[in-house]
Specification:
Layout lengths: L5 E6 L8 E7 L2 E6 L13 H5 L14 E3 L17 E3 L2 H19 L4 E4 L6 H15 L4 E2 L2 H4 L1 H10 L17 E5 L3 H4 L1 H12 L4 E5 L12 E3 L6 H14 L5 H7 E2 L1 H8 L4 H8 L3 H12 L4 E5 L9 H15 L8 E4 L6 H6 L6 E2 L3 E2 L3 H10 L15 H6 L8 E5 L3 H4 L3 H9 L3 E6 L11 E4 L8 E4 L4 E5 L12 H16 L11 H11 L16 E2 L23 E2 L18 E6 L16 H4 L4 E4 L1 H7 L6 E5 L4 E8 L7 E5 L27 E7 L8 H7 L3
Parallel strand pairs: 6-7, 6-16, 8-9, 8-12, 9-10, 11-22, 12-13, 16-17, 17-18, 23-27, 24-26
Antiparallel strand pairs: 1-2, 2-3, 4-5, 4-18, 14-15, 19-20, 20-21, 23-28, 25-26, 25-28
Helix pairs in contact: 2-19, 3-19, 3-20, 5-13, 8-11, 8-12, 8-13, 11-12
The chain binds iron/sulfur cluster.
Length: 719
Amino acid sequence: MIQPDRIVSTTCPYCGVGCNLQMHVRNETIYRVTTPFDAVVNRGTLCVKGRYGYDYVYNKQRVTTPLIRKKLQKPGKRTQAFDLDEWRQVSWDEALDYTTQRLVEIYQRDGSDALAVYCCAKATNEDNYLLQKMFRALFQTNNIDHCTRLCHAGSVVALQMAVGSSAMSNTAAEVIHNDVFILTGANASENHPIIALQMKKAIQKYGAKLIVVDPRRIELVNYATLWLPEKPGTDVPVFSAMAHVILKEKLFNPEFIDTRTENFQDFAASMEKFTPEFAEIVSGVDRNLIVAAARMYASAKNGAIYWALGIPQHVHGTDNALALINLALLTGHIGRLGTGLNPLRGQNNVQGASDSGAMPWHYPGYQRVDDEAAAIKFEKGWNQPSGSLNRQLGLTTTEIVSHIAPDGVRAIHIMGENPMMSEPDLNHTRHQFEQLEFLVGQDLFINESHAFADVFLPAATFAEKDGTFTNTDRRVQRVRQVIPPRGESRADWEIICDLAQRIEARLEVPTARWDYAHPSEILEEMGTLVTEYAGVKYKRIEQVGLQTPVYDDNHPGTPFLFAEKFPRGRGKFHPLEYHACAESIDQEYPFILTTGRVLEHWHGGSLTRHSWLDDLYPEALVEINPVDAEALGVKSGDTVNVRSRRGSIHLRCKVTEKTTPGVVFIPFHFHEAPANILTIEAIDPLAKIPEYKSCAVAVTRASEKDLKNPEAQQARGRY
Ligand code: SF4
């Protein structure tokens, strides 16, 4: 066996579980990943991504020198450039001076609203804190967002409305203390594999009962006591019908309702109409299953609810999450060990990027930008003149795209994200990106969005820098530099500090702090402004992370939330109405499309598709139920065309009972057949999250040669 020169402990860069990785290094090359049995989060287990998916660090397509486009890009005529011949390699000084000059020019000509920035759920807390600080303090814009808008925005808004805190209320491993738990809109085995293992242990070793509510027959259905196969987007009627049964049969918790909640009467009145019979008609779920699920959850000693993107990614995503919160408040299954509300966060640091203020309505720590006291606090903390920070709410990710116009957004800085894969209705997104005046890409690879950029700033990977990630159960954990950055790539926080100092000098404005010697100093600064991070210091998380809130240097962290009270005081019930999805099926588009992830890949695929993981799952497949496949005359491996009102893609099909009849599923990782060419731009009015989980499509048999996908090729622009 090869003996390592060193083994460095760090945190997985993929999903929000936040597993510990021990990276083995020989001759400055990572060659192996292990994890110890006493690792607090993952107890000696890793999924395929964490164990083997680090090789993108060495991928030949990675860009490791700063680049500027050779041909000046003009609004309306902007093109994509994946080929390095269309760029010239430049020094860091030239790249950063050019970026400074163009951003400042546009800001001084068109003002704060002309600029926008995508922060990044894959980057560290420190990277995100600094990027939002730079745009807020130097350009006075709140047009700052990241992919949290596209995943859990509905959950965040609903939890803030109902309890005043938007994170998971429990530690993931607490699932072994549940005797009943609901899993809905979450394919945990593929998206949070280590949490899925803990769920299986809770069922098999500790006798917990699982209720799955999901349109897909996910793997965990095999372990469930009940499976409620609802139609996509019918969560409000299903969960409200459960509340209806709990109210009618007096299975609720009157003491909890009296002492910890408000607005019960209005809520109870609104549940009258949600009979199991009504829910059955709307959702397709047998009324007896709804009654059985209600009784099982309400009579549990410790009940908990876990959900992922199937809940918030709807035009009524906030209502869907409120329906779950209502159930927890009704039964008192919250505020104790093993009881609570748990939105499983997707990316490795989507919780931390949100905590760090990478959002348009909030400073770090969810302090509203339109709250005068919060604005004054951040002006003082960042040494900015009184009244200088913008008090207006900024644009969300999807709004940034729709506001690209001659009198709207003119320049965007994208750190690590890829809206040209992740936004809905990609043909529209492409048209909008073509209208930009200036685009900065900061990343590892030239992705579909950065291919539109004027300047590319090469960033270091997670294995080449220090920092922290905050995982799905609020645990702030160390990310450690394992190897030196490849080529001239630099840590994101260093790039931002260098750029901010240049912008500040050009604008001749008061100096904020940008001279950090190490990211630990950045986190300490954030802790002075965010109460929940006040006690999170690098020296305290060397061995094991701390779960926020951590109020001071002696605070031990908070494994589960709301023991005494909710941050807003009382938990608030919300009356609900049923609203259909934005687009219904009809004769021309008779299938519901739902999108999501597969085990081997992650999001837009920018990391996993540059890893050998791509060999395990190399192409997009549309999953079709056997009943529909027979009617369409197709079998697994055949090519089909999937078409919506917005676009069309060709891909092979996989015939499987994982999807229910009338529903097809496409993973969104593949630029060759991007699912988001088909999805609809309709958004939840409160959370502004698009409806990725339901739109109407047609599926027809096609031929192998159609796999070239002209529309997808046009979207990517290089075929
Ligand atoms: Fe990484 Fe998530 Fe897999 Fe753990 S479960 S190894 S954090 S991808």
